[in-house]
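Hi L.,

You mentioned the student needs an example of a multi-chain input paired with its predicted structure. This one should do, with 532 residues in total across all chains.
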Amino acid sequence: MLLGEEDHFNEEGEFVINIGPQHPSTHGVLRLKVWLDGETIKKVEPHLGYIHRSIEKMSESFSYRQFGYITSRMDYLSAHMNNQACALVVEKALQVEVPARAQVIRIILCELSRLSSHLLWFASAGLDLGGVTPFFYAFREREAINSIMEETCGARLTQNFMVPGGIITDLQPDFQKRIKEVLKQFKDNYHEYNEILIGNVIFQNRMKDVGVLTREDAIALGCTGPVARASGLSCDIRKHYPYDGYEKIQFDEVILTGGDSWARCEVRMAEMLQSVHIIEQLIDNIPEGDIVAKTKNVIKLPKGEFYQRVETARGELGVYIVSDGGSTPYRCKYRSPNFSNLMAIPHISKGHKIGDLIAIMATIDLIIPDIDR
Amino acid sequence: MCEIHKLKMTNEELKNSFAQIFPAVTFDETGEFLTAFIPSEALLPVMKELRSKKELYFDYLFCLTCVDWKDHLMMVYFLNSKTHNHTIVVKAKITDTINPKIESVYDIWKTAELNEDEIFDLFGVNFLNHPNLRRIFLEDDWVGYPLRKNYVDEHMIEL
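Structure written out for the whole complex:
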């Protein structure tokens, strides 16, 4: 906890402190200004902008082939989904048909990133609450997924694989074999994860009834993703507004009604299995054919406005493009899931102890570069 | 699910319902969503009706942004009803670009708080009755509003 110039008792006898911007449990450069009465939280105010790069402004000078690349630096754990959103909005505007092979590969890679992102959440949630061992467990599979990504896309973290019209290059020969190995390893180890962290009584007691978000508040605050689904709100974009062939795939939208941190944990644990289930349906059925649809070298979108949303590992990402008919966006807005989910923290942490704030932050699972953009 | 879809309004019904709230509204149906244009002064009462009217019930503000069209600023509100599952885009035109101001919708949708902070920070739109209007990304003494088209940044490298 950093002590800054604002640290003092105010007139009401509340102690004001800063958590972050360099605090391990904020998972990035987020600063929370917290008003405390003893150990009880009175008020939380997030302060942002430590990693603001003005991606929306930069996008205005990028062409429609370039502007997607920078989005993998927003939510770096959902890089594929961010790229996909940008590719989809251009495809929607140009009315391009994406080849079936590209669609299937896109879904496999997206679900693989979702699995790897939830694994990282599992690792860091344990770490935040003092359980160090799960970190090493989860990084076994994450490492294997990262090396598949490296072989396929040329990058371990900030992948840029999806381009307008399809994907950038074809798969490596042993792509399917390696993914099957990872999935088998994950399924064999899944019960261990449940036992070591999720089944742990200390972990459960820190999570249960902490930070309860009601369904109404989740809607009003604009929460999406696992955070909202743990509050009983059906908001999976893959189900409600299917894209890239998600409508042909069988999977369940995991919805729980608890609304507390524990429910958010359970949703993510169940979603990992759903991602595995989706990949298993597709991995042996990748159709042959083209990987990218033909588009002009210089893409110009017709005059108008286009909105495309995808489900990232953290919720609903929306890309809003205003085009004036030129080769660069006139205005590009990213409705990022973390930006809306962030507001849940001040709302649900009121009245809890400061230790619970760490548990709440762990289960909201924020990625700060996606908030700041 | 079928009960939800039964209540979903078509664009035609949405238009009729909207015109009852605010007769001077104009519509645009060329895009993906039905778009309604209203003057910025009328924003708050119209939004309150959209949120509270039973058959509309737009309880989910899923995207809030602003577009600079040089001679005016356009506020864009993407609304969805989680109950009825219909979507509408409301656009409010701010003609005063020197001193732009509009009512805050924080009282209706809590998610507006940070989104309006962001628009204040990057577009300079003043939100009236906002609980805590501040520059969230840039420093407090930053000069200018970067997403405005007339913003000049001498450090920017043109690609």
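You could point out the following to them. Strands of chain B lie at 26-28, 34-39, 60-68, 73-80, 87-94, 101-103, 126-128. Chain B is about 25% helix and 25% strand.

Best wishes,
N.
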